[in-house]
Design the sequence.
């Protein structure tokens, strides 16, 4: 593990006053760490220069963005499903020269600056040291021990061309590299800059890139920042580089879990795009595959793919079915990589048991053979989720045995004083002894990567809170928006399935062109769900009414407007819903959140997120005033939990009970309309009966209410 750390981190020891050595990224040296910054409240953070990320101590001296290479778009693509070509040459030097890119990170200060500029923060979670956080002994206060973790400096990836380079420790297959460029991606996004070095760098042994890095990773990066590519490319890289070892045997080697079918399907498509021509196969887990029987059939269809993408329950059933059958995990015995996309949902109450069931089963079967490497991804990861994940990542043996690399003298080191301008040490002090060649395989290296400010919504999305007083007020506001400044496509979120359907019934004819509004929720059939997704992606649907089903992960590139018709029941849900717009740095996205009297207690959390994310950019109606933040009441933990579980009470329940009803009409008007409808129906029935009695003409029943395109 020491070797891997040396690959991942910079060599000099700041504690001893070195300002950095001049060496390339693959230098074998001790990790350089910086101590964790003091915790700051969100309100305190200066958003232009997030101080919590200023662990380099000299933010002011940092240049803006580093130069990154533009990709050479002139590619020759071969779509055959053949095996990988041998890498012929190190192309990077030539491309880098052409583009004048920043190629090799020179020293620790350069790494710090680069990490600061791209808001990357790595924390080593493997071996916390108990730290007295200043609590006092006494009658009222009890002394608390707080875990303290070391932070690491890891040179970020500054251009995709580096991925082709052996000198940088990557040597990614040419085909995958070309597939990345074929997507039109010219430079890595920040999460990719931070995660790819951790997950892909290989070890230099006798001048060759041999063993692979050995890291479990928790990544928290903003919505729409390209996390999918950040885990798919390392998976492809690992599968291709270990293909020979696996003897060309087919079968599942990596599993990706996602909370919804929509997201799972999207991930499969991403893997397909990035693996064109590599021979790597990917499948979406379906009923009837791998041990699960469908319609009474006994045997499941064997999964021939290298990568399997699934929602948790389906996969758990398949694993359990196999275990029951022969006590082995036949189909899944070779899985060595596990990815949890939207990890905080997968480890939250609803999915936790299923996810942990899968994780344990895969971990158990991998333990004797190199172990299972896991990575978790989300735009929001709570400390609770982190703790669950950390415990799962630590192998049982590692929990007892100290991990040799982590208590070396270079960790932690104090923050760098203001970097001196040109002073560079030429030699990297090696303080740690080299591990013996026969050292046992690493047991656990758990890293956390945070990109940007944790748990905030995108600053590029204009966010507005709109008080509508009452339920009918929301409908009026929505109709006004449709007739004044509406720019499709829009996603419209409500609290429940009955409310999604009710809103659809109410507004389906509100746009001048019919058929442009649709509804998508979990009660629809798979085919209907897929159909609506396709039509929305094609631009046939302009307004998609949905529940939190589509709040996470789903990437509709061009969504311009998110309307929280019903207030999200958690701040986390708010961040993810709003993140459906402003994808991949797109400007011009907007999010409007309506709230009524019933919601007042729940607005403060959202208002705080908006205030932090918008900073000085929030102008006019988008800005959350201090007066509002001060005026909004605080909500206790218990109430928040309740809200998360059941939603706003006034809107819970069915349409029949009135709670899900969405209409601008008063009770009196509705009663009159019901009576009128009753009379019309009775007269139709009479006409139909008369027609049955021998008279011709007149269709029975007349118009049925249109309940949605998919039903
Ligand atoms: N390097 C890149 N350059 C430009 N666009 C990119 C790059 N990488 C990914 N993208 C695009 O960014 C968009 C968002 O990517 P992705 O869905 O992976 O985001 P995410 O971080 O997983 O978001 P969420 O948290 O909402 O799930 C996609 O449309 C993808 O095509």
Sequence:
């Amino acid at each position: 593990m020491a070797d891997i750390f040396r690959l991942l981190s910079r060599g000099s020891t700041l504690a001893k006053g070195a300002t950095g050595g001049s060496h390339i990224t693959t230098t074998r040296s001790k990790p350089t760490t910086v101590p964790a910054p003091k915790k700051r409240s969100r309100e305190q953070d200066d958003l232009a220069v997030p101080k919590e990320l200023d662990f380099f101590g000299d933010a002011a001296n940092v240049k803006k963005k580093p130069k990154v290479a533009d990709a050479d778009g002139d590619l020759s693509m071969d779509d055959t499903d053949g095996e990988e070509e041998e890498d012929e040459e190190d192309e990077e030097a030539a491309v880098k020269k052409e583009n004048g890119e920043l190629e090799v990170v020179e020293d620790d200060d350069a790494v710090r600056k680069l990490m600061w500029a791209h808001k990357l923060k790595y924390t080593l979670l493997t071996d916390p040291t108990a730290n007295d956080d200043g609590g006092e002994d006494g009658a009222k206060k009890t002394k608390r021990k707080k875990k303290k973790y070391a932070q690491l400096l890891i040179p970020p990836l500054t251009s995709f061309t580096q991925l082709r380079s052996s000198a940088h420790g990557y040597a990614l297959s040419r085909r995958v590299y070309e597939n990345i460029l074929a997507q039109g991606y010219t430079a890595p996004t920040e999460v990719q800059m931070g995660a790819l070095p951790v997950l892909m760098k290989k070890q230099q042994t006798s001048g060759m890139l041999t063993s692979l890095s050995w890291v479990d990773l928790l990544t928290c990066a903003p919505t729409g920042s390209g996390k999918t590519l950040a885990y798919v490319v390392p998976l492809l890289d690992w599968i291709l580089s270990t293909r020979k070892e696996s003897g060309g045997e087919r079968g599942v080697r990596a599993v990706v879990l996602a909370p919804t079918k929509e997201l799972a399907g999207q991930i499969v498509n991403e893997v397909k795009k990035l693996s064109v021509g590599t021979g790597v196969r990917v499948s979406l887990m379906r009923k009837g595959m791998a041990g699960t029987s469908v319609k009474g059939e006994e045997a499941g269809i064997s999964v021939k793919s290298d990568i399997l993408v699934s929602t948790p329950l389906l996969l758990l059933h398949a694993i359990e079915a196999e275990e029951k059958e022969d006590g082995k995990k036949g189909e899944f015995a070779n899985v060595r990589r596990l990815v949890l996309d939207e990890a905080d949902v997968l480890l939250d109450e609803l999915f936790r048991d299923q996810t942990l069931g899968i994780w344990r089963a895969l971990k158990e079967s991998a333990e004797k053979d190199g172990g299972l490497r896991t990575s978790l991804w989300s735009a929001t990861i709570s400390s609770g989720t982190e703790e669950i994940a950390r415990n799962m990542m630590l192998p049982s043996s590692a929990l007892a045995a100290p991990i040799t690399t982590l208590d070396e003298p270079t960790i932690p080191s104090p923050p760098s004083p203001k970097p001196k301008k040109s002073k560079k040490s030429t030699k990297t002090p090696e303080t740690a002894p080299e591990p013996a060649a026969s050292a046992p395989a690493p047991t656990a290296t758990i890293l956390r990567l945070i990109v940007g400010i944790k748990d905030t919504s995108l600053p590029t999305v204009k966010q507005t809170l709109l008080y509508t007083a009452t339920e009918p007020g929301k409908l009026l506001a929505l109709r006004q928006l449709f007739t004044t400044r509406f720019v499709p496509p829009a996603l419209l979120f409500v609290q429940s399935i009955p409310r999604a359907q009710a809103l659809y019934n109410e507004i389906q004819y509100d746009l001048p062109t019919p058929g442009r509004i649709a509804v998508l929720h979990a009660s629809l059939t798979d085919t209907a769900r897929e159909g609506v997704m396709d039509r929305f992606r094609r631009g046939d649907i302009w307004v998609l009414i949905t529940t939190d089903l589509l709040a996470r992960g789903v990437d509709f590139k061009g969504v311009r407007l998110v309307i929280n018709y019903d207030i999200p029941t958690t701040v986390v849900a708010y961040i993810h819903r709003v993140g459906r717009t402003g994808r991949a740095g797109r400007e011009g996205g907007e999010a409007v959140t309506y709230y009524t009297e019933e919601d007042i207690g729940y607005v403060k959390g959202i208002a705080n997120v908006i205030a932090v994310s918008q900073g000085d950019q929030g102008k006019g109606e988008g800005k959350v005033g201090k007066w509002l933040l001060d005026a909004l009441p605080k909500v206790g933990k218990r109430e928040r939990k309740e809200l998360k579980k059941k939603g706003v009470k006034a809107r819970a329940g069915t349409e029949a009970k009135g709670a899900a009803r969405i209409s601008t009409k008063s009770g009196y008007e509705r009663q009159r309309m019901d009576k009128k409808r009753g009379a019309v129906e009775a007269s139709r029935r009479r006409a139909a009966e008369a027609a049955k009695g021998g008279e011709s003409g007149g269709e029975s029943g007349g118009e049925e209410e249109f309940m949605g395109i998919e039903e």
Notes: The longest strand covers residues 120-132. Residues 461-651 form a domain with the Rossmann fold fold (CATH 3.40.50.300). The mean pLDDT is 73.
